[in-house]
Each structure stands twice: as C-alpha cells, then as structure tokens.
Design brief:
- The chain has 494 residues and is of the alpha+beta class.
- It has helices at 46-64, 105-115, 117-124, 133-143, 145-150, 157-166, 173-177, 191-196, 219-225, 239-247, 301-311, 317-324, 365-392, 408-418, 430-442, 449-456, 467-493, and strands at 2-8, 12-18, 24-31, 43-44, 71-78, 84-86, 96-97, 153-155, 170-172, 182-183, 188-189, 206-208, 213-216, 232-234, 254-259, 263-269, 281-284, 291-297, 335-337, 355-357, 397-401, 421-425, 459-463.
- The strands form 8 sheets. The protein has a 7-stranded mixed beta sheet with strand order 17-18-16-15-21-22-23, with helices on both faces. Strands 3-2-1-5 form a 4-stranded mixed beta sheet. It has a two-stranded antiparallel ribbon with strand order 4-7.
- A hairpin with a 4-residue loop joins strand 10 and strand 11.
- Helix 1 (46-64) crosses helix 6, helix 11 (301-311) packs antiparallel against helix 13 and helix 14 (408-418) packs across helix 17.
- It is globular.
C-alpha cells in the first residue's frame, strides 16, 4: 500500500508518494501563476491549483509505475490563510486572495475595534494580521458587495483541492485556526467572532482532525488523476503544521526550526497556550488534540543572501562562511539587526530596518559575515524566548531544516545561541511528506502521528551547544534586545 501527500503551495502543486515504511517513492509537481493586479495584492485562480494537482497525481503514479488502486489514502497540505469564495454550486467567485496579500490593514483594525484586541486574542490566540483569512472576507464585503452577495462557501487553498477530489466541503482544524475565525480552545468555529463580524456560520465548512477522513475520491476526480474511486482523503493540515509532522516536531519540547528566506519557529503544545500580546501565532496542530506556537521572522537566510549579493557578490557562500569561522563568538562587539523586510515576531513592525551596529576599524568582512549569522540566530531566539515564557517549558531538541542550516558554522551558532541540541533529519520534502504520513495514520498504517514519525524519520546529524560560546551569546543577546526599542522611533521617521 502507498500513501499520497499533496502540497498546494504558492508556486506549485506537488504530489509525493510514500510506501508503508515511509520511504519516498516518487515526486512530481506542476507550477501555478501568480497575479498582482495592484501593489501589495497577491491572487491566484483556484482552478489552476486543481489542474496542477490532477497533472501531478497522474505524473507521480506514472513515475512510480503503480496504479491508483494501490494508493491507500491521500493527505492534503498547502499555503495557509488564502481566501477561496464559492457560490452555492461550488463555482469560484473571484481569484483567491493569498496569505502574502497586504491589502487588508484597515479591516484588521476594524476587527480589533469591533471585538476588542485583547478579547480577540483570548478567543483566537492571535491578533488580526493582513495575511489571515478573516480580514480578507471583510475586504470583499466592503469592496466587492456583488461578489459577497453570491458567496455561500469559504475554503482555504488545499480545501478547494479537496472539494474537487471528493465533492466535500471540509477543512482541518490546524488550517481552520489560521483563519482567525476559530475558538482556539474549542478547536472549532467561534460563533462569537463570526457573529460579531457578521460572517454566516453556514459558509464555514465542517472541521476535522488532521488524520480523519473528510471524503472519498469521486468518479470525475478519478478519471482526471488516475486514483481509484473511493480512495479516502484525510484532512491534513496547513503547510507549517504538516511540515512539522514531516520532520517529527509533534511532541512538546521538540521544536521545528526552518531557516529559509524567512525563519519559522514551530513548537507543539499540549494545550491551547496563548501569548498574551499576540506576538506568536497560536493555532491547532495537525496532530489530533494538540496545538502549536509559531514565531516568524521575515528575513533569516534572506539576510545572508542580501549581504552576499550586495557586499560580496563575487564570493561564494562557502568562502564567506569559512572566513567567519576565524572570528570569535560575539563578533568582537559587532551586532546585526536582521529586519531587512520589516519584522513579524516579536516586533510586528513593517517599518523596522536592518542595521550593523558597533562597527569599528578593527572589524573586517569576516566579522560582518559572522554578525549576520548571529543576528539571525538572535532574532530566532526572540521567538524561542516568547514560546518558553508563554508556558511551553524546556526545549529539549530543535529539528532544523532549510538552506540556512546546511552550513556547520551556522548550525553551531544556532545551537549555542538557543542553548539546545540542534539536529537534522532524513526527510526533506516538508509539508507533502507530513500530509502523506497523516494519510497513513488515517488508513491505520501507523497507530498515531508520533508512531509514524518515530518509524519513518531518522536523525542524520546533531550539533550541541558550546558552553563557552553560549555564555558569550547570553551577554550579546541582551544587547541585541535593547537595539530595536532604542531605534524604533528612528525607523518610523525614515
């Protein structure tokens, strides 16, 4: 028996096939187009997702040389927060408004005014941000009343794919929480929030735990994809929750750390913990009965990319990092603020700026390189600190992924700054792999998600904190924490 994970991301739809041991058998993907009709707008045609998914499923079955009859279950994941509005017949009413669309700040302010910011955080676990789904619904209501009048269903991107696969209107609880229309503790839609925002409860689909089956492949979908009619489709989870399953970050104390262009800290929690000021995202997990915190910094490995492209374009990353190895921890007093794209966690400030602080004649390019690595590590530690202070407790292990964790120097800096073991694992396919595992659990291949992860995910490397370096970084981090508050008013004037 095989299990299929489908990931509908911003750039493409990926189909990934695993066997009963969790080994990846084949992967296929097809791209999407992105529309930006106005500055700060970001949209896609949901029908493109379905075309890409159908093509990817057919392709992955062909690559693997198996028939759809041998696929035991399908799991779904994809980009979070996007608004898909449908009429009563399931027809798309307008292009989906995506997670990275920035048009809704006025609606976010309106939500906080109507409900009260503190109360909203206490119900949903989050502040209203432009990326989330709820303010997008209000934007359509205020700006496209003719579209709003025809609306009967609200879905997220992967759930439109689910509709096309199964005919079912359904959503997992992890992605549901990311709409900020959820009662976090109750793990279902908040009647209080929906009523206050005048969004009909009937528009919202039934929600399921990540491993539960939500529907079965229809004859029409089977003809387009090659899957067997009646193949069960599991709820799955948004890309971050499914990605955490894909690296085994499914138990309290094990934290997922992704150092890509942006940086994401993902921490599983046994209960619905909330950061009182809403500086962390608090959502349901794709793991049944679990929740998670998520901190996001906007420019992680992106900071190193900018630094190299701007100041050392003719030097390879490997050579830059080798130079930095000769510099002691703390970069001899040089600090780097990684706010090149503004910031999300812990400072939700689009006006925040990057900076080198403490430059002297003694500092060389090697110092600056190391300072960039350390500054990003400090920015990630901000999220770790918030998570610990919000009640998670001791962090026993950090599971690292993303391009920024491939270099030994950066892994060592991260381990010493975070004062935790940093490990790498054998799985690299992220959300699609996690979705396939969730499908396997639903089909009974593994008894639960933790068992699936233990059976399929192996540690491939470990980096322990250097105690001496950790002591230096504690002092440097205290200085780092002082810098943004000191410069905030200046940033706002620039």
């Amino acid at each position: 028996m095989y299990f299929l994970g489908i990931d509908t991301s911003t750039t493409s739809s990926k189909a990934l096939l695993i066997d009963e041991k969790g080994e990846v058998i084949a992967v296929a993907s097809n791209p999407h187009t992105l529309q930006t009709p106005k500055p700060l707008w970001s949209e896609q045609d949901p029908r493109e997702w379905w075309e890409a998914v159908a093509a990817s499923i057919k392709s992955v079955l062909e690559k693997a040389g198996i028939s759809g009859e041998r696929v035991g279950a399908v799991g779904l994941t994809g980009q979070m927060h996007g608004l898909v509005l449908l009429d009563g017949d399931g027809n798309v009413l307008r292009p989906a408004i995506l997670w990275n669309d920035q048009r809704t700040q006025r609606q976010c302010d309106e939500i906080h005014k109507i409900i009260g910011k503190e109360k909203f955080i206490s119900i949903t676990g989050n502040v209203a941000l432009t990326g989330f789904t709820a303010p997008k619904i209000l934007w359509v209501k205020e700006n496209e009343p003719d579209v709003y009048a025809k609306a009967k269903h609200v879905l997220l991107p992967k759930d439109y794919v689910r509709l096309k696969l199964t005919g079912a209107y359904a959503m997992d609880k992890a992605d549901g929480a990311g709409t900020v229309l959820f009662d976090l503790k109750a793990r279902d839609w908040s009647d209080e929030v929906l009523s206050a925002l005048e969004i009909p409860r009937a528009w919202m689909p039934k929600t399921f735990e990540g491993t539960e089956f939500t529907g079965y492949v229809t004859e029409e979908a089977a003809a387009l994809t090659g899957l067997k009619v009646g193949t069960p489709v599991a709820a799955g989870g948004g890309d971050q929750a499914a990605g955490a399953v894909g690296i085994g970050a499914v138990e309290p104390g094990i934290v997922g750390l992704t150092v890509g262009t942006s940086g994401v800290v993902f921490a599983t929690t046994p209960s619905a913990l909330i950061e009182p000021e809403g500086r962390l995202h608090a959502f349901c997990h794709a793991v049944p009965g679990m929740w998670h915190f998520m901190g996001v910094m906007l420019s992680a490995a992106g900071s190193l990319q900018w630094y190299r492209d701007t100041l050392a374009p003719d030097v390879s990353f490997d050579d830059l990092l080798k130079e930095a190895e000769s510099i002691p921890a703390g970069s001899e007093g040089l600090q780097f603020l990684p706010y090149l794209s503004g910031e999300r966690t812990p400072h939700p400030d689009p006006l925040a700026r990057g900076a080198f602080i403490g430059l002297t004649l003694r500092h060389s390019r090697a110092h600056m390189t190391r300072a960039v690595l350390e500054g990003v590590a400090f920015g990630l530690k901000d999220s770790f600190t918030l998570i610990q202070n919000a009640g998670l407790g001791k962090i026993t292990q950090v599971r690292a992924s993303g391009g920024g964790t491939k270099g030994a120097l950066w892994r060592q800096i991260l381990a010493s700054v975070l004062e935790a073991e940093l490990v790498t694992v054998n799985t690299t396919e992220g959300g699609a792999y996690g979705a396939a595992l969730l499908a396997g659990v639903g089909a009974g291949q593994w008894s639960d998600v933790a068992s699936a992860c233990k059976a399929c995910i192996r540690i491939t490397g470990s980096t322990l904190p250097d105690e001496k370096e950790a002591g230096v970084y504690r002092k440097s981090y205290e200085i780092y924490r002082e810098l943004y508050p000191a410069l905030k008013s200046s940033f706002a004037k620039m």
